[in-house]
Protein 1
Amino acid sequence: MTRPIHIRACSAAQLPMALLLEADPHLPYVQAYLAHGHCYLAEHDGATVGVYVLQARSPSTLELMNIAVAPNCQGQGIGTQLLQHALHSARQLGATRLEVATGSFGHPLTFYQRAGLRVYAVEPDYFLLYYPVPLFEQGLQHKDRLRLAIDF
Ligand SMILES: CC(C)(COP(=O)(O)OP(=O)(O)OC[C@H]1O[C@@H](n2cnc3c(N)ncnc32)[C@H](O)[C@@H]1OP(=O)(O)O)[C@@H](O)C(=O)NCCC(=O)NCCS
């Protein structure tokens, strides 16, 4: 089922921090990119059900720094709508490429590749060396990070 949602640009202060931390649980990292990010939220019946944040990596490349759907609303197509909106926003902002970094397994990897993003780099041990909080998914600790991208 795909829920009717409204996605719009917003200020960083309008994004619920609890939702951002679902995707990226280290608060200082989130605060750092919020300060320079393009922020968007998805609403359903007046409630915020999803968020995403884009940040410039270069004049032609934006990075999707965070995308998250409220836990009770996941698996209903909202994430896919947000990701499509992010691709559209990136083009509108003048980018020719969108990148994202994610763990080397788990459903976000399927989620991104379904939208056409492809792996272009592997960062072995990234989460062990550079991420201050241990990240687990499906009972398995994330160690390596993948970088994915799509060119428009
Ligand atoms: C990743 C996320 C944004 C996807 O949003 P969503 O609204 O749940 O995604 P959708 O309903 O649009 O699902 C799209 C696809 O993602 C995958 N997917 C999403 N949730 C899944 C789950 N719980 N288990 C397995 N696959 C899942 C499936 O491939 C799904 O396709 P399908 O419905 O045909 O099986 C959401 O699960 C989320 O917020 N997760 C926590 C934060 C996070 O991990 N962010 C990404 C960090 S890299």
Note: The pocket of coenzyme A is lined by residues 22-23, 67-69, 74-80, 102, 107-108, 110-111 (CB under 6 Å).
Protein 2
Amino acid sequence: MKPYLFAAISAGFLATSFAASAADGPAILESKCASCHALTQPENSALDHVWERKGPDLYYAGDKFNKPWLVEWLQDPIRIRPAGEFYFKHVKKGDKVDVVDESTLTEHPKLAKADAEAAADALMALTGPEGLIEKGKFKDKKASPMAKMLFTKLRGCYACHSTGDGKGGLSGPELHTGGERLQPDFIYSYIKDPQKIDKSVWMPKLNISEQDLQNLTSYIVQLSGKKEAK
Ligand code: HEC
Ligand code: HEC
């Protein structure tokens, strides 16, 4: 190899390794993520935004996710929404019920460790408008034995969400990693009023008592993805 060529290659190598060790989170979000995710609150939050967006809104990511989960997931993204973004575009008629058309789903981009850490930091710095999430209302009680019953039977959550036992619906995000993935205050606020957080989302706003809200939140908080919920 000619010496100047070798020098050029090693300089290029050094430049890449330097870039990786000094990863710039906000720059990664802008260049690699903004094409699919809203990083600032969209002006138009009506139904066509939900219909047209290519990925979930991330402008309130710092109010929603647990950082350790983000760092892991960005390196190894495992599907959260069984039918991708979004449900109605990725299902076809089955014999009895609609089934997910897997061939229309794509893999999520992956980040290397240093980039995942930097992107997670930048995401945690994104917070939504004041009051979007109700902070401090959830009292962190142990889920009562009623909680699973509320989720699976009484309040119909199971129709759209799975909890890792192979049952449960497909049109909402899985919740069997809910406790690892989501902040308790976010879970509480979302169940209380989904449209306050995502104006045109199809999760119904139910009239749920404060006690049941606490119970449903506790139930999801203890779902860790590793074991089946009791
Ligand atoms: C081609 C479009 C596309 C690009 C580019 C993309 N994403 Fe995504 N992202 C998606 C989709 C679709 C989902 C939903 C995946 C699922 O539910 O399994 C998603 C989900 C996520 C989630 C979980 C959100 C939630 O509410 O559950 C995070 C966090 C995320 N992406 C971060 C990023 C970051 C950081 C980047 C840039 C490095 C990025 N994404 C680039 C399409 C994209
Ligand atoms: C008709 C379907 C439907 C029903 C019924 C439903 N949900 Fe949802 N839920 C959704 C959809 C759709 C989303 C958000 C979709 C997205 O972000 O892509 C959601 C989001 C959530 C989230 C936030 C999860 C996340 O990863 O962003 C929680 C927590 C949640 N639901 C809990 C519940 C609970 C508890 C019940 C029962 C009281 C319930 N849901 C009933 C469809 C439903």
Note: Residues 3-21 form the longest helix (19 residues).
Protein 3
Amino acid sequence: MRALSATELLGVWERAFSQSSIQRALALLAAACPESPPDALAGLSIGQRDAHLLALREATFGAEFTALASCPACGAATELTFRASDLQAPPAPAPPAELMLQIEGRDLRVRLPTSADLLAITRPDDLAAARDQLLARCLLSDRNQVPEPVLDAVIAQMALADPLADIQLALRCAGCGHAWQAAFDIVSFFWREVHAWARGLLREVHTLAAAYGWHEADILALSPARRRLYLEMVGG
Ligand SMILES: [Zn+2]
């Protein structure tokens, strides 16, 4: 996965700024994989999509990730530093497009949820309705024949088959020693970084444009090292 140029990443930020988290994920991947049709990217399982996003984040901002959390026991801020490779060692093979599950003597055919499936959920805030809509799309066997507890097991098995779709970080508070797990969402993590980066970059463009009268495109085409040097020279 190659890093996006400053102009490309700024373009993604601008296009996806007012969009949903799922659309932001797809916009980042579309910019990084221009050879992949949008339908193919939207058809990746969530775990596969997030593996690509982890690789893109590594290529763009470096291999080290720092997650911040508040200790649920004492409230102290806790920091965890890790690498993408810590989350998937060895790199997980892509799960099959369709799975046959055997649950309580039943053979059930399912598909792993994709971004396209999540985008099709009309009421994502209503968890029960969202679960029903996801099952309607991803359970390929006749749902009417499947009792509710088995449907819960289907959801659990789908999650197991696509482990990167639900990354859990093991955190420990340095203050009180409390240990807990927290979900790590690469999309919101990466997007927060992109947003902070874009604001900082546009501030730099403003400073250099005001000082030298350069065009935005020319300033964006500078390498970060050159931009930094010019900024030092104008005291920005
Ligand atoms: Zn604590």
Note: Residues 71, 73-74, 76, 173, 175-176, 178 surround zinc ion (CB under 6 Å).
Protein 4
Amino acid sequence: MPASAESTARFDEKGYDVIGDVHGCATELTVLLDSLGYRVHPSSGAHEHPTRQAVFVGDLVDRGPAQLQVLRIVKGMVDAGSAQIVMGNHEFNAVAYDTPSPDGGFLRAHTKKNSRQHQAFLDQVDGDIRAEFLDWFTTLPLWLDLGGLRVVHACWHEPSMRVVEEVLGSNRFTSRDQFVRATAKGDPLYEAVEVLLKGPEIDLVGHGQQPYFDKDGHGRSRARVAWWDDDATTLRTLAVMGTTFKTVDGEPYPLLPDAEVEAGEQSYSYRGDVPVFYGHYWREGRPQRGVDFTERTACVDFSAVKSGALVAYRWSGEREIREDHYVNVG
Ligand SMILES: [Mn+2]
């Protein structure tokens, strides 16, 4: 990142630095915080900026090599008031994995697949320290509305937020008991948390289309929804279809019909006038207009733990996303 006098001056003003999925990349995080002008404060011991606050989009843990160090840095900042954070699906899953189910087992089953995905965390964050951080994860807000900007891990969707507020009384869990409903397929709270933390999906088979097979050969009936596209109202524009997707016969998957879907499914498209920042989607390369960012949405997850970049967006009051406010892009 160029450290010109101009760019330093521009970010002396108040604002928020929205930081993407860290996934245990402590070295990348300390380098990024330093380049953004956050310094370890002698009394709090936390990274602080004289005029700005950091906002983390969640997914501090899993996969990466230094998860405990990341947790200490970020929780230290949150406790010192120099950062805020929303819950990612990996924090949600960590709590569910650790919470016994009333039916026996755990709220997130200890299957081979789930355990393998979570093993690095279990190895690196152990004992009382793990319990302490899981308690912290439990009560992280699922979204933040900071006035001029909004932050959520995967998708800003007001109908889902209303469900969460109705069931939990606010934008966060207050106890692990509430994770029982949040992990019960079919429960409105489960569906709402799925949308906010993992992003909405659309059922292609339910719309009369054939399933697709992804690049790993997994057959799927549901596609991700391009909720960041405010124009998307049809199956073709809403469903995110990879160019490598195949039919069951191994043919390239055909173009979906350009037919309007029902209102509930159209409701995912973000049409608010306040910028939304999100992570989750493992984007690659430099931020591309139209997908990674639009006028009012900006993804900050550029796959730091998969040899991408730990990206931040420096928001300073603008109503429209500016490409040049992304920093540390690959
Ligand atoms: Mn992530």
Note: Residues 201-267 form one domain.
